[in-house]
Specification:
The complex is a heterodimer. Chain A has helices at 20-31, 41-50, 62-71, 106-115, 127-131, 162-177, 190-207, and strands spanning 55-56, 94-98, 121-125, 153-155. By secondary structure, chain A is an alpha/beta fold. Chain A has a 4-stranded parallel β-sheet with strand order 1-2-3-4. In chain A, strand 1, helix 3 (62-71) and strand 2 (94-98) form a beta-alpha-beta unit. In chain A, helix 2 runs antiparallel to helix 6 (162-177). The radius of gyration of chain A is 23 Å and the shape is elongated. The model of chain A has no long low-confidence stretch (mean pLDDT 79). Chain B is α+β, with helices and mostly antiparallel strands. Chain B contains 18 helices and 17 strands. Chain B has helices at residues 2-9, 32-41, 102-113, 157-161, 226-230, 235-242, 250-265, 271-299, 303-323, 346-369, 372-378, 386-392, 396-401, 408-411, 432-454, 508-519, 528-535, 539-543, and strands spanning 15-19, 22-27, 49-57, 62-69, 77-84, 91-93, 116-118, 162-169, 172-179, 186-190, 202-208, 211-218, 333-334, 337-338, 475-483, 486-494, 502-506. In chain B, the strands form 6 sheets. Chain B has a 5-stranded mixed β-sheet. A 3-stranded antiparallel β-sheet of chain B has the order 10-11-12. In chain B, helix 9 (303-323) runs antiparallel to helix 10 (346-369). The longest helix of chain B has 29 residues, at 271-299. Classes of the chains: A alpha/beta, B alpha+beta.
Chain lengths: 208, 544
């Protein structure tokens, strides 16, 4: 495989300057029996990060048992590289919210989320964490954890099977792979919103 | 019964109504302590087991129902009822000095109905935050979400530890405040989010060096208000919620609720359904004990045991998946029978599972029971006497490990248990090791029950025909079943609607967490997690 075959989305091959030394270097290494591939550091980091996310053990109710099944003999999420479940938010970068969050628990969840190091992700596991689930008419249930913290992936079910959780994990891995490690997360362009507003205001004024 | 009639005749102010072996005794609220103490301390017929305290809102009056049973005549249930007219300042005497389990029950009633128990030194909310506005179980509760918004700050520990109380000193009421812990005490927080508390449980542990001095369990981190929600749900809808109480023995709770509703409807359930439900219940019990065993072993550091337990549990999950459709939540029992007939492979798979499980049980014993480190940690630790177990209402394997025979399957046979010949597993030492080993023994006994029933499932319908809208006739219905971690009771108060007026579940785990307060004191903090594991409570079952 040649170096120029490596696809980099934002940059054409011609845009690179002084590629020759790299190509020579790779050729030499390969000739001496070294396996080497060249990629963007961003992709490499994201590839590594997406396959070794450290989850926080956080299970409040029924879904937590399915989370335990996921870690146990049959479903065994160790084979995905997710098995390093941490007991401290300081060491974790994804929080699986398995189960209902109630009013008394909400500040605790928020605090745990805030204690996690950046970049951090949240998975809402089960219908209670998504939107209150079967407890939607309760006086003490938070109707979805997105009322308290931002959520990256929603896994529906009551409780979802461990397979569903593996699928959810894969979606999160996709999401991580899409990120730019060297940039801050994209912020919404507020100026654009303002323009739109003024357009609407104009329209409103004209109709009046 | 003659004895109990004689006993109740000594209470001239009481009105007694008897249905079978259930006695409903209404008394004026002033006589409550006197009557309770008379029933408890009676030599001939002591009602020494306080099953539950049920708060009630009758509309005009508030009320309290004490369900009592006896170790001498365990099949008798006595409901002691008292009504309180004053809705603004409801007060009643405490019975905490008679039964150890009463303190948490009284706090629960206080938090939900605002009834103050005089002389109870601890009148905090049990499940709700101390700053919660209103009493949610009252019929006139204002459910406006703006009154109780989602809190943004952690609960104030000072507020959490301030115990308000109303005491009677020489006939005069005196409001008082105590502190849970002394100023110089060394208090450690355990939870609410801790991998070894078996759920979201917050324990405030006061330590002297490494020795535990006092434990204050702080509950409610998963209080979902199931009982209150049920008051607006139809009976078939409620079943869905009961499974989510104690999710490890969910199908047993669901079965119990079905039985309570069927009792009210006087519905004849086909024999086939009884057999199927019993087999499913016993499979659930095995699955639950496997998880309980595995988790307790993991609490002591043995992850292999946890993996072994989960591996065998998956076999049961496979059986459930085929017949019921669900894994953890079977959603199987329904009013009048079961949802659908069993899968053609069901009997074959269950029969394959029995010898497999027996073989694996030997492996479990080999792996962990004989392990000198495990034995050293479990033997001689966490003693619970029989008297204490009864006073605490610690039913199920915990009580049976202390020699208290409390198996509802034997006491009040339901479903198809009368067709199976089985032993109630009893041990007498009441130590952690007994609570550990009793679960493995119960798995064996459950396998025996299934073995006897699986080949004899009768033919016929799997469910009785029920009306599209189920309305329960007016009255009170009470049903006891044996869950995986103790007695699970359902109390339904119906006013003839399709919704219950009040439904109350006796959660076995609530008394178990109360037991922890007693058995952990004097032990090392390193053993706390293991002691909790030996009691095997499920926190959503505590909080409901």
């Amino acid at each position: 495989m040649e170096v120029k075959d490596i696809y980099i989305r934002d940059m054409k091959y011609e845009d690179f300057k002084e590629n020759e030394y790299l190509e020579e270097y790779v050729k030499e290494l390969r000739a001496n029996g070294v396996n080497i591939a060249i990629a963007k550091v961003n992709d490499l980091i994201n590839w590594g990060r997406s396959n070794s996310v450290w989850p926080l053990t956080f299970a409040t109710s029924c879904c937590g048992i399915e989370f335990m099944c996921l870690g146990a003999a049959r479903y065994d999420f160790a084979r995905f590289g997710w098995e390093v479940t941490r007991n401290s938010p300081r060491q974790a970068d994804v929080i699986f919210c398995c189960g209902t969050i109630v009013h008394k628990m909400a500040p605790v969840l928020k605090r745990l989320y805030e204690q996690m190091a950046e970049p951090k992700y949240v998975m809402a596991f089960g219908s209670c964490a998504i939107g209150g689930g079967p407890f939607k008419s309760s006086y003490h249930t938070v109707m979805g954890i997105d009322k308290v913290i931002p959520v990256d992936v929603y896994v529906p079910g009551c409780p979802p099977r461990p397979d569903a959780m593996i699928y959810g994990m894969m979606q999160l891995a996709r999401k991580i792979k899409m990120q730019d490690f060297f940039k801050l997360p994209a912020q919404p362009d507020m100026a654009k919103y303002k323009e739109k507003e003024t357009d609407l205001e104009k329209l409103g004024n004209e109709s009046n | 019964m003659k004895v109990i009639d004689e006993l109740l005749a000594q209470l001239p102010f009481a009105t007694v109504e008897q249905i079978g072996k259930e006695y409903k005794v209404s008394i004026p609220k002033e006589k409550l302590y006197e009557t309770a103490s008379f029933l408890k301390n009676n030599q001939r017929y002591s009602f020494d087991f306080l099953m539950d305290i049920i708060g009630m809102d009758y509309g005009d009056n508030l009320g309290v129902i004490y369900t009592l049973s006896s170790t001498q005549f365990p099949d008798t249930v006595l409901m002691l009822k008292a009504e309180i007219e004053d809705r603004d300042k409801p007060e009643i005497e405490t019975i905490t000095d008679l039964w150890n389990c009463a303190d948490l029950y009284e706090r629960e009633v206080h938090g939900f109905y605002g009834i103050v128990f005089l002389n109870n030194p601890d009148m905090r909310h049990l499940f709700l935050r101390q700053d919660w506005v209103g009493y949610p179980f009252r019929k006139d509760y204002n459910a406006d979400p703006s009154l109780n918004p989602i809190p943004c700050t952690d609960e104030n520990l000072e507020q959490m530890e301030d115990l308000p109380s109303v005491e009677m000193v020489n006939g005069e009421k005196k409001e008082d405040h105590h502190k849970m812990f002394e100023e110089e005490e060394y208090v450690v927080n355990f939870g609410p989010q801790h991998p070894a508390t078996h759920g979201v449980l917050h324990l405030r542990v006061s330590l002297d060096g490494e020795t535990i001095k006092k434990i204050d369990p702080n509950l409610g981190y998963i209080h979902r208000g199931i009982e209150k929600m049920s008051e607006a749900y139809t009976y078939p809808q409620i079943l869905h919620l009961t499974e989510r109480l104690d999710y490890l023995s969910g199908s047993i709770s669901r079965h119990g609720t079905c039985l309570a509703v069927e009792k009210g409807l006087q519905l004849e359930v086909p024999e086939r359904a009884h057999y199927i439900r019993t087999i499913i219940d016993e499979l659930t019990r095995i699955a639950s004990h496997l998880l309980g065993w595995g988790c307790m072993a993991m609490d002591m550091g043995s992850i292999t045991a946890f993996v072994y337990g989960m591996r065998d549990r998956e076999k049961i999950m496979d059986i459930f998946e085929e017949t019921c459709g669900g894994r953890l939540m079977t959603n199987y029992a329904t009013i009048g029978g079961v949802m659908k007939d069993i899968h053609p492979n069901f009997q074959k798979k269950v029969k394959e599972f029995i010898p497999y499980m027996r073989k694996m049980l030997k492996e479990h014993h080999l792996l962990f029971t004989g392990n000198p480190i495990a034995r050293g940690r479990m033997e001689g630790v966490g003693y619970l006497s029989k008297e204490q177990a009864i006073s605490l209402g610690a039913t199920g394997p915990t009580g049976r490990a202390s020699g208290w025979s409390n198996d509802v399957r034997k006491i009040e046979t339901y479903a198809a248990y009368s067709h199976a010949d089985f032993q109630e597993v009893l041990r007498t030492d009441g130590l952690t090791f007994d609570r550990y080993i009793i679960r493995l023994d119960e798995i064996e006994e459950s396998l025996n029950i299934i073995e006897q029933l699986i080949d004899n499932i009768p033919g016929g319908a799997y469910a009785a025909k029920t009306k599209a809208i189920i309305k329960l006739p007016e009255g009170e219905y009470f049903q006891r079943v044996e869950g995986a971690r103790g007695e699970f009771d359902v109390y339904i108060n119906s006013r003839g609607d399709k919704y219950p007026y009040r439904i109350k579940f006796r959660s076995p785990s609530l008394t178990l967490v109360n037991t922890l307060k007693y058995i952990a004191v004097g032990n090392k903090v390193a053993d706390l997690v293991m002691l909790g594991g030996s009691l095997d409570y499920v926190v959503p079952c505590i909080d409901r």
